[in-house]
Amino acid sequence: MPQKKRPPTVVLETTIGDISVELYWIHAQKTCHNFAELSRRGYYNGCKFHRVIRDFMVQCGDPTGTGKGGSSIYGATFDDEIHPGLKHTGAGILSMANSGPNTNGSQFYITLAPTQWLDNKHTIFGRVCSGMNTVNRIGSVETDADDRPKDDVKIIRAYCIDE
After folding, report:
1. Could you tell me which residues are beta bridge partners of residue 53?
2. C-alpha neighbours within 13 Å on the C-beta side of residue 108
3. Burial zone of 2 (CB within 10 Å; 0-12 exposed, 13-18 middle, 19+ buried)
4. Is the predicted pLDDT of residue 163 greater than 60, yes or no?
5. Is residue 3 within 8 Å of residue 160, measured between CB atoms?
6. Nearest to 126 by CA among 154, 76, 160
7. Rounded to an integer, what distance in angstroms lies between the CA atom of residue 125 and that of residue 65?
8. pLDDT confidence of 86, banded at 50, 70, 90?
9. Measuring CA to CA, which residue among 83, 162, 91, 71 is closest to residue 132?
10. Residue 127: its pLDDT value, please?
11. Backbone phi, psi, residue 85, to 5°
12. Residue 152: CA atoms inside 13 Å, Cβ hemisphere, count?
Protein backbone atom coordinates (compact mmCIF):
# COMPACT_ATOMS: atom_id res chain seq x y z
CA MET A 1 0.00 0.00 0.00
CA PRO A 2 1.52 3.37 -0.94
CA GLN A 3 2.52 5.60 1.96
CA LYS A 4 0.07 8.35 0.93
CA LYS A 5 -2.82 5.96 1.60
CA ARG A 6 -1.58 5.27 5.12
CA PRO A 7 -2.64 8.28 7.19
CA PRO A 8 -0.92 8.28 10.56
CA THR A 9 -3.87 9.94 12.28
CA VAL A 10 -7.67 9.86 12.15
CA VAL A 11 -9.72 12.57 13.85
CA LEU A 12 -13.14 11.82 15.31
CA GLU A 13 -15.12 15.03 15.75
CA THR A 14 -17.76 14.14 18.34
CA THR A 15 -20.68 16.05 19.76
CA ILE A 16 -18.63 16.77 22.90
CA GLY A 17 -15.11 17.25 21.50
CA ASP A 18 -12.43 15.88 19.19
CA ILE A 19 -10.43 12.67 19.52
CA SER A 20 -7.29 12.07 17.44
CA VAL A 21 -6.00 8.53 17.11
CA GLU A 22 -2.61 7.36 15.90
CA LEU A 23 -2.86 4.21 13.77
CA TYR A 24 -0.46 1.26 14.16
CA TRP A 25 0.05 0.43 10.48
CA ILE A 26 3.14 -1.72 11.13
CA HIS A 27 1.22 -4.03 13.49
CA ALA A 28 -2.28 -4.11 11.97
CA GLN A 29 -2.17 -2.96 8.34
CA LYS A 30 -5.47 -4.46 7.23
CA THR A 31 -7.33 -3.14 10.29
CA CYS A 32 -5.83 0.35 9.93
CA HIS A 33 -6.75 0.39 6.24
CA ASN A 34 -10.34 -0.60 7.11
CA PHE A 35 -10.66 2.14 9.77
CA ALA A 36 -9.03 4.84 7.64
CA GLU A 37 -11.06 3.98 4.55
CA LEU A 38 -14.35 3.86 6.48
CA SER A 39 -13.42 7.28 7.91
CA ARG A 40 -12.60 8.64 4.43
CA ARG A 41 -15.94 7.37 3.08
CA GLY A 42 -17.92 9.10 5.86
CA TYR A 43 -19.13 5.74 7.17
CA TYR A 44 -18.66 6.77 10.82
CA ASN A 45 -20.32 10.17 10.40
CA GLY A 46 -23.43 10.21 12.59
CA CYS A 47 -22.54 6.99 14.45
CA LYS A 48 -23.51 6.89 18.12
CA PHE A 49 -21.29 5.74 20.94
CA HIS A 50 -23.81 2.97 21.57
CA ARG A 51 -22.04 1.29 24.50
CA VAL A 52 -20.33 3.09 27.37
CA ILE A 53 -19.07 1.31 30.46
CA ARG A 54 -17.52 3.58 33.08
CA ASP A 55 -13.87 2.73 33.88
CA PHE A 56 -13.80 0.18 31.04
CA MET A 57 -14.43 1.42 27.49
CA VAL A 58 -16.50 3.44 24.99
CA GLN A 59 -17.71 1.68 21.83
CA CYS A 60 -18.79 3.07 18.47
CA GLY A 61 -18.76 2.31 14.74
CA ASP A 62 -22.18 0.75 14.17
CA PRO A 63 -24.25 2.90 11.80
CA THR A 64 -27.46 1.28 13.08
CA GLY A 65 -26.67 2.43 16.63
CA THR A 66 -27.70 -0.96 18.02
CA GLY A 67 -24.32 -2.61 18.50
CA LYS A 68 -25.36 -5.36 16.09
CA GLY A 69 -24.57 -3.71 12.76
CA GLY A 70 -21.71 -2.55 10.64
CA SER A 71 -19.42 -4.11 8.08
CA SER A 72 -15.87 -3.74 6.89
CA ILE A 73 -14.49 -2.57 3.56
CA TYR A 74 -13.59 -6.22 2.92
CA GLY A 75 -17.15 -7.51 3.25
CA ALA A 76 -19.09 -8.36 6.39
CA THR A 77 -16.05 -9.26 8.55
CA PHE A 78 -12.30 -9.82 8.38
CA ASP A 79 -9.66 -11.68 10.36
CA ASP A 80 -7.94 -10.54 13.54
CA GLU A 81 -4.44 -9.08 13.48
CA ILE A 82 -3.26 -9.91 16.98
CA HIS A 83 0.25 -8.65 17.68
CA PRO A 84 2.03 -10.08 20.74
CA GLY A 85 3.73 -6.76 21.50
CA LEU A 86 0.48 -4.81 21.80
CA LYS A 87 -1.51 -5.01 25.03
CA HIS A 88 -4.47 -3.23 26.60
CA THR A 89 -2.18 -1.59 29.18
CA GLY A 90 -4.17 1.52 29.98
CA ALA A 91 -6.60 4.18 28.84
CA GLY A 92 -6.67 5.29 25.22
CA ILE A 93 -6.07 1.96 23.44
CA LEU A 94 -7.97 1.70 20.13
CA SER A 95 -9.19 -1.83 19.33
CA MET A 96 -11.70 -3.61 17.16
CA ALA A 97 -14.91 -4.76 18.79
CA ASN A 98 -15.92 -8.27 17.74
CA SER A 99 -18.27 -11.14 18.49
CA GLY A 100 -15.53 -13.76 18.57
CA PRO A 101 -12.37 -14.65 16.66
CA ASN A 102 -12.03 -13.17 13.17
CA THR A 103 -15.30 -11.20 13.23
CA ASN A 104 -14.01 -7.64 12.81
CA GLY A 105 -16.33 -5.27 10.97
CA SER A 106 -16.62 -1.53 11.58
CA GLN A 107 -17.11 -1.36 15.35
CA PHE A 108 -14.28 -0.24 17.60
CA TYR A 109 -13.68 0.72 21.19
CA ILE A 110 -11.35 2.96 23.16
CA THR A 111 -10.29 1.82 26.62
CA LEU A 112 -10.76 3.92 29.75
CA ALA A 113 -8.41 1.81 31.92
CA PRO A 114 -6.17 -1.27 31.65
CA THR A 115 -8.19 -4.17 30.20
CA GLN A 116 -5.65 -6.99 30.04
CA TRP A 117 -8.37 -9.70 29.80
CA LEU A 118 -8.96 -8.44 26.23
CA ASP A 119 -5.36 -9.11 25.16
CA ASN A 120 -5.08 -11.63 22.31
CA LYS A 121 -8.86 -11.45 21.74
CA HIS A 122 -9.21 -8.06 20.04
CA THR A 123 -7.04 -6.40 17.40
CA ILE A 124 -5.27 -3.35 18.81
CA PHE A 125 -4.65 -0.94 15.96
CA GLY A 126 -3.95 2.44 17.52
CA ARG A 127 -4.07 4.78 20.47
CA VAL A 128 -5.51 8.16 21.38
CA CYS A 129 -2.83 10.79 20.78
CA SER A 130 -5.04 13.80 21.53
CA GLY A 131 -8.46 14.22 23.08
CA MET A 132 -8.31 11.80 25.98
CA ASN A 133 -10.35 14.34 27.96
CA THR A 134 -13.13 13.87 25.39
CA VAL A 135 -12.87 10.09 25.70
CA ASN A 136 -13.14 10.40 29.49
CA ARG A 137 -16.17 12.69 29.15
CA ILE A 138 -17.86 10.10 26.92
CA GLY A 139 -16.95 7.44 29.49
CA SER A 140 -18.69 9.46 32.20
CA VAL A 141 -22.06 10.01 30.53
CA GLU A 142 -25.17 8.66 32.19
CA THR A 143 -26.21 5.28 30.77
CA ASP A 144 -29.19 2.96 31.03
CA ALA A 145 -29.18 -0.65 32.27
CA ASP A 146 -27.89 -1.81 28.86
CA ASP A 147 -24.88 0.57 28.95
CA ARG A 148 -26.41 2.85 26.31
CA PRO A 149 -25.97 6.59 26.85
CA LYS A 150 -29.23 8.25 27.89
CA ASP A 151 -28.30 11.24 25.71
CA ASP A 152 -26.73 10.52 22.34
CA VAL A 153 -23.02 11.11 21.88
CA LYS A 154 -22.13 10.87 18.20
CA ILE A 155 -19.28 11.15 15.77
CA ILE A 156 -20.13 14.22 13.71
CA ARG A 157 -17.30 13.61 11.26
CA ALA A 158 -14.33 11.26 11.01
CA TYR A 159 -11.44 12.17 8.73
CA CYS A 160 -7.86 11.28 8.00
CA ILE A 161 -4.88 13.57 8.45
CA ASP A 162 -2.28 12.75 5.82
CA GLU A 163 1.07 14.11 6.95
Report:
1. 57
2. 28
3. exposed
4. no
5. no
6. 160
7. 22
8. very high
9. 91
10. 98
11. -85, -5
12. 9
Pick from 105, 110, 82: which is nearest to 12 by CA? 110
CA angle 57, 73, 100 (to 5 degrees): 45
**Residue-wise pLDDT tens digits, 3-22:** 447 889 999 999 999 999 99
d(CA 118, CA 15): 28
Secondary structure (DSSP) of 98-111 = -SSTT-B-S-EEEE
- Is residue 135 a contact partner of residue 19, using CB atoms and an 8 Å limit? yes
